[in-house]
Amino acid sequence: MWKKVFNDEDAAAAAANDDDYAMMLMLLPLLKMIMLLLLVLLLIMIMMMMMMIILMMMMVIGMVLLVVVVVVKMMLFDDNDADNDGNYDDNGEDDDIDDDNDDIDDDFRIFRFLLIMMKMIKMRRMRMRGRGRRRRRRRRRRRRRRRRRIMMTTTTTTTTTTTTTTTTATTTTTSTTTTTTSTTTTTTTTAAAATAFKHLICRPRNGQYSSTPL
Hints:
membrane; single chain; transmembrane helix; mainly alpha; 82% helix; transmembrane
């Protein structure tokens, strides 16, 4: 049996005598594969660390170069009044002043761009908010129009009903004055006037006059 597993006769004989040794010899290929995988993973980790280190170094070098360029630009192109070269244009003015203005414009160009971008973002937000406000205003206007239409219809109905009620009130007052004494006529006229005034002010609800005014 062990001769089929191991080609070496000595290893086969040792395995036949010791089962632990035989199991160890059988697990050797698996251990070799595990070790190779670990080595590959270690190499990958090393490569990733190297890439990270290279990227960090490139970032540091870029920052240093940027600082150097800015310092060199400030040192070379900083034309002040003390170290002007004496160049004058046709109008007799110093050209260095214009150069300084150009440098200021170049320096603030990126700030202008950022301000424009911020304004565009702000305008976009205001437009999005304005849409919601416009919708609310439209809804409020529609509600107000509906309320006005309802109020107009109710006022027309109340005017027609008040005319009919005033005529009936006057007829009742005339009939009572002819049949009763002067004291009763005065009380009925005041009551009829009060009812007529109430009909003029109050609005009808389901055919009945309520005590709430318009």
